[in-house]
């Protein structure tokens, strides 16, 4: 009989934190030295499985495909097999996903710079270089600590800085932002952890 390795399980193509990632779990009873090899196929060229150089004979159980995808507006799927010595498992395929439609966002990191009567805020996004050109935006909230009343700044271009006049503000103020992106409809990340600053302390 032909001995095969147990195939990888739970093979899933998912988007997380602006990336498109293939994940899987080892097949039951896999040997400790097992490695994995990944390929992907795009709906532009069906039946052509393309190698992913950085996911050949890897020990980890995920493969970031974001920057190998030739077209972020076309559905792709991926497949993975287990290898150990001369043994191989069958390939296991994921479902189809399209980056532009299925991308899941992560909150931006806020950079807050307090000057005399002004706050400058910009947001940095944990993006792979290949997707930097997409029109990522962010929404910013400003509120007095302890208050529910938030001033909202919406649809700010990723590279743009928001300048807030703080002349009339006194006390502890907090800022938080979320990433947003328009594909078919608007998507948003969760809001970032608040950054709080003391404005115009008395005396």
UniProtKB/TrEMBL annotation:
One of its GO terms (molecular function) is cytokine receptor activity. GO terms for cellular component: plasma membrane. InterPro entries: FN3_dom, FN3_sf, Ig-like_fold, Interferon/interleukin_rcp_dom, Type-II_Cytokine-TF_Rcpt. SUPFAM superfamilies: Fibronectin type III. Residues 7-102 form the Fibronectin type-III domain. It holds the Pfam family Tissue_fac. It comes from the Eukaryota. Gene3D superfamilies: Immunoglobulins. This is INLR1 protein. It comes from Aramus guarauna.
């Amino acid at each position: 009989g032909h001995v095969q390795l147990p195939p990888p399980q739970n093979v899933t193509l998912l988007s997380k934190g602006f990336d498109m990632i293939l994940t899987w779990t080892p097949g039951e009873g896999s040997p400790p030295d097992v490695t994995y090899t990944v390929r992907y196929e795009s709906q532009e060229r069906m039946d052509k499985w393309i190698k992913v150089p950085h996911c050949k004979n890897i020990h980890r159980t995920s493969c970031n495909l974001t920057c190998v995808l030739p077209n972020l507006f076309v559905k792709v799927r991926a497949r993975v097999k287990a290898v150990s010595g001369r043994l191989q498992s069958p390939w296991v395929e994921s479902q189809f996903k399209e980056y532009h439609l299925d991308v899941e966002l992560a909150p931006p990191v806020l950079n807050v710079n307090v000057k005399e009567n002004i706050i400058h805020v910009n947001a940095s996004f944990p993006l792979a270089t290949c997707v930097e050109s997409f029109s990522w935006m962010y929404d910013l909230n400003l509120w007095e600590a302890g208050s529910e009343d938030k001033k909202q700044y919406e649809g700010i271009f990723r590279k743009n800085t928001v300048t807030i006049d703080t002349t009339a503000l006194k006390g502890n103020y907090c800022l938080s932002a979320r990433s947003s992106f328009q594909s078919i409809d608007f998507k948003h990340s969760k809001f970032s952890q608040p950054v709080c600053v003391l404005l115009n302390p008395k005396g």
